[in-house]
């Protein structure tokens, strides 16, 4: 499902880039040619503006859908579960009143700070 949505999202992105590049700039563009009808300056601008708005809405919707789908497969993980002990070592529960920082202190008396 996610792969299909990514492919659709990429096609919408390419179409959106193409439509934006086709739009009339300050100096001209598709609307430079004369004549009337469907591809006149005003008609082209209306079609491209509507197409850009529709593609932008589809891009927004696919972006939201991809973020929701990515959130479903995510599980909460703790950095404490990653461990620091070897894989074969048995897990030790901290003593009452000790936290994780107390466990990683080296045994023995505290070392005095080094002065310079």
Automatic annotation (TrEMBL):
GO terms for molecular function: protein-transporting ATPase activity. Residues 106-116 have a biased composition (Pro residues). It is found in: Cell membrane. The keyword Protein transport applies. One of its GO terms (biological process) is protein transport by the Sec complex. The keyword Nucleotide-binding does not apply. It is a multi-pass membrane protein. Keywords: Cell membrane, Membrane, Protein transport, Translocation, Transmembrane, Transmembrane helix, Transport. Residues 83-116 are annotated as: Disordered. InterPro entries: SecG (IPR004692). GO terms for cellular component: plasma membrane. The chain crosses the membrane at residues 51-72. Residues 83-99 have a biased composition (Low complexity). Involved in protein export. Participates in an early event of protein translocation. Belongs to the SecG family. This is Protein-export membrane protein SecG.
């Amino acid at each position: 499902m996610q792969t299909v949505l990514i492919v659709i999202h990429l096609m919408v992105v390419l179409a959106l880039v193409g439509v934006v590049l086709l739009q009339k700039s300050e100096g001209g563009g598709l609307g430079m040619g004369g004549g009337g009808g469907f591809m006149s300056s005003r008609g082209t601008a209306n079609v491209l503006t509507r197409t850009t708005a529709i593609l932008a809405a589809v891009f927004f919707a696919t972006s939201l859908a991809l973020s929701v789908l990515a959130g479903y497969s995510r599980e909460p993980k703790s950095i404490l579960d990653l461990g620091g002990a070897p894989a074969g070592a048995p897990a030790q529960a901290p003593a009452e009143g000790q936290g994780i920082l107390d466990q990683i202190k080296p045994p023995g008396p505290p070392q005095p700070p080094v002065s310079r």
